[in-house]
Design a protein that fits this description.
Layout lengths: L1 H7 L17 E2 L4 E2 L2 E6 L4 E5 L3 E5 L7 E2 L6 E7 L2 E6 L3 E5 L7 E4 L5 E7 L2 E6 L4 E4 L7 E2 L9 E7 L2 E6 L4 E4 L7 E2 L9 E7 L2 E6 L3 E5 L7 E2 L9 E7 L2 E6 L4 E4 L7 E2 L9 E7 L2 E6 L4 E4 L7 E2 L2 E2 L3 E7 L2 E6 L2 E5 L7 E4 L5 E7 L8 E6 L2 E5 L18 E7 L2 E6 L4 E4 L7 E2 L9 E6 L4 E5 L2 E5 L7 E2 L10 E7 L2 E6 L2 E5 L7 E2 L9 E7 L2 E6 L4 E4 L7 E2 L9 E7 L2 E6 L3 E6 H12 L7 E2 L10 E8 L3 E8 L5 E10 L2 E8 L6 E9 L2 E9 L2
Antiparallel strand pairs: 1-57, 2-31, 3-4, 4-5, 5-6, 7-8, 8-9, 9-10, 11-12, 12-13, 13-14, 15-16, 16-17, 17-18, 19-20, 20-21, 21-22, 23-24, 24-25, 25-26, 27-28, 28-29, 29-30, 32-33, 33-34, 34-35, 36-37, 37-38, 39-40, 40-41, 41-42, 43-44, 44-45, 45-46, 47-48, 48-49, 49-50, 51-52, 52-53, 53-54, ...
């Protein structure tokens, strides 16, 4: 790795000696996530469409990714010439002529644009309404081209020769020989009419069906025959062709490959840790597999092996810790790291969304169980996360939002207001008398002698192990939509849409404690000793060291996206941040920064990520310095050659910004290096023309 870095940047430039007080937040390497819907590739650029992060761009055939300029939920992608098009969940089609740096919107319909394809000078868009739209002016305007269709959702479009094919959810395949003016059914031999994907390979056309496997037509869709030898999962969701290889992605069994035009199939899923495939693509010699929750996997050997190169998870909602092992829960199940986030592994529940964790030891002794609360029930692991069997009894199938443990007592709150409790370490469960009605139980914590539950209607307390609950809305709790709770000794904190409240009498009286809390839509609370941390939907993170009397902002270096979760592990604070995965920072640094803030010292030294990124050709770069220093800000190409000097002078403390005009620079990855005194930091920038 050191040798590789020296090739990219002269080794002398890599000597980074920041001031010991400020190492900044560290973005860990995952967990990888993303609901991938589509791929589109040109000879030099590969795009991935997602429902939770918009469009991502790769210029190295899927080995690395950067966000493009489109953040809308995207259901479909296609190239027409050098223009890339994106169909969105809201009925719009966006087009970009500068490889994703900027996008122009055209409203096509009011429902999801599920499919896109191009044929000559025409561009076609299929919609959830069952209609097909056509554009003859590169997406500037659209008209319906649906005569002959049955009105069922269009799941895929494909061009093969002079024909256009439309796959539907329930009516099979339709064919147009006149660029969409008229469609006719093309279903002879197609016994399963829920068709999810189409792909052309030479003179053959393949259709992946939901329940009937793969069908092939060798006569332009006039007739079809099933080609499922070796295919063990009949629920096909995606197709791709790479040279003489045909790939099908399935609902639960990963990817299968055929080397003989569909006559037989073999599973090729080694390294594919998330088996539900939602999109397939090819770029260069690489094959791409998009998943329903784990982002992108790439294979450079036609599926013999796969590696995860996807995007940071968009939704991490919970943490729990066991020694140096960190567990993170969110969309895609449970993720585990044993090296501080350098490597994350999905260890269970890949089809579920994990909302919360709790650890409890059975009443009779034995190994402690880690419980994972999900939207479809409760799961437990007694082997360090290696397996996660479902917990049966009363909690089975419950839509859970929160869970907490105190010894062998557990309480779990649900979406519909029901609270479940266990007194034997989770072996058996009962429905408690919650008193919460139908209000969501968004958070539960355990105090020294009571459980507390936060709901949409205030706080409830149980003093008998979670068996029964009483309202503690109390005087002074002026915002009763509670999103988070934390207990410190006799003090209970409630995070709400209107800030933080505290009580010292189990909720009878509350006091607002928001001084310095400049954004108040609180998402999570976490305690480390006497330090209380609060995160918000605005992407801010605050800390108080005086029981809420005052708060300091400690989120410098974080991306500004909503922070969904906080966790305390060892000497580090962990944060789950929308679209960027898990971040961490040592508590000692956060507390040190807080002391400096209290003393009136500017927060720290920091180089922000340029915006926009990718860019074409202008981007803005911001940096912060804590004291007057001589500052240099330089741009290097990947070979370490200096291509621009943006700052080379003494600067006063505070925030500064400069603009880079790269109109005379070629497309590619560049390195922006910032140095202020002894502090140095480097960030990557992607120029896409």
């Amino acid at each position: 790795m050191k040798r590789l870095l020296c090739l990219l940047i002269p080794c002398g430039l890599l000597v980074v000696t920041p001031r010991p007080l400020y190492t900044q937040w560290i973005q860990t390497s995952g967990p990888h996530g993303g609901i991938v819907t589509s791929f589109a590739a040109s000879s030099t650029h590969l795009f991935a469409g997602t429902l939770d992060g918009g469009v991502y761009l790769s210029t190295d055939n899927g080995l690395s990714w950067a966000k493009s300029g489109l953040a809308e939920p995207v259901s479909s992608l296609a190239f027409s010439g050098s223009t890339v098009f994106a169909g969105t969940d809201g009925g719009d089609v966006y087009r970009s002529t500068d490889n994703g740096a900027a996008w122009v919107k055209t409203t096509v319909t009011t429902v999801n644009v599920t499919a896109l394809t191009a044929n000559g000078s025409y561009l076609f868009a299929g919609a959830e309404s069952g209609l097909v739209y056509r554009s003859a002016d590169n997406g500037a305007s659209w008209s319906t081209a649906s005569t002959g269709l049955m009105g069922l959702s269009i799941s895929a479009l494909a061009a093969a020769g002079s024909n256009i094919f439309a796959a539907t959810d329930g009516a099979g395949v339709f064919r147009s020989t006149d660029n969409g003016a008229l469609w006719t059914s093309a279903n002879a031999g197609l016994l399963m009419t829920f068709v999810k994907a189409l792909a052309a390979s030479g003179s053959d056309l393949f259709a992946a069906t939901f329940g009937g496997g793969v069908y092939r037509s060798s006569d332009g869709g006039t007739s079809w025959s099933a080609t499922n030898t070796g295919l063990t999962d009949m629920f096909g969701q995606a197709l791709a062709v790479n040279g003489s290889n045909v790939f099908v992605g399935t609902l639960t069994s990963g990817v299968f490959r055929s080397t003989n035009n569909g006559a037989s199939w073999a599973s090729v899923s080694s390294g594919l840790t998330f088996p539900s495939i939602s999109a397939l693509g090819a770029s260069g010699t690489n094959v791409l597999a998009g998943t329903l929750a784990a982002g992108v996997f790439v294979s450079s050997d036609n599926g013999a092996s796969w590696g995860s190169t996807g995007f940071p998870s968009s939704f991490i909602t919970a943490f729990t810790f066991s020694g140096s092992t960190v567990f993170a829960g969110g969309i895609g199940g449970v993720f585990r790291t044993t090296d501080g986030g350098a490597r994350w592994t999905n260890v269970g529940l890949p089809f579920l969304t994990v909302i919360g964790f709790a650890t409890s030891t059975p009443a009779g002794g034995g190994a402690a169980n880690i419980f994972a609360a999900t939207q479809t029930g409760l799961y437990a692991s007694a082997d360090g996360g290696e397996s996660w069997p479902e917990v049966t009894s009363a909690v089975r199938g419950a839509s859970l939002l929160s869970i907490a443990a105190s010894g062998s007592n557990l309480a779990a709150g649900s979406y519909n207001g029901v609270i479940y409790h266990s007194t034997d370490g989770g072996t058996s469960w009962w429905v408690a008398d919650s008193g919460a009605g139908s209000r969501k139980v968004t958070s539960i914590v355990a105090g020294a002698s009571a459980f507390f539950a936060g709901t949409e209607n205030g706080v409830y307390v149980s003093t008998n192990g979670g068996g029964s609950w009483n309202a503690r809305i109390g005087y002074g709790l002026t915002n009763t939509n509670v999103s988070a709770l934390a207990v410190s000794g006799s003090r209970l904190y409630a995070g709400t849409e209107g800030g933080v409240f505290a009580t010292t009498d189990n909720g009878t009286h509350w006091a607002e404690v928001n001084t310095g809390l400049t954004s108040t839509n609180v998402t999570a609370l976490a305690l480390y000793g006497s330090n209380l941390f609060a995160s918000t939907m605005d992407g801010d993170l605050f800390v108080t060291t005086d029981n809420g009397a005052s708060w300091s902002l400690v989120s410098s270096g974080l991306p500004g996206n909503p922070i969904y979760s906080l966790g305390v592990g060892g000497t580090d604070l962990f944060a789950g941040i929308a679209g960027t995965g898990v971040w961490r920072r040592p508590f000692s640094e956060v507390v040190s920064v807080t002391r400096d803030l209290d003393a009136g010292v500017p927060r720290d030294f920091y180089l922000a990520q340029n915006y926009p990124n990718p860019f074409n050709p202008v981007t803005r770069i911001e940096f912060r310095i804590a004291s007057r220093e001589f500052v240099t800000l330089k741009v290097f190409d990947p070979l370490g050659r200096e291509v621009a000097v943006l700052v080379n002078e003494e600067k006063s403390s505070g925030v500064h910004a400069v603009t880079l005009d790269a109109s005379k620079m070629p497309s590619g990855m560049y390195l922006c290096r910032f140095q202020a005194g002894a502090f140095a930091e480097t960030r990557k920038m992607l120029l896409v023309k």
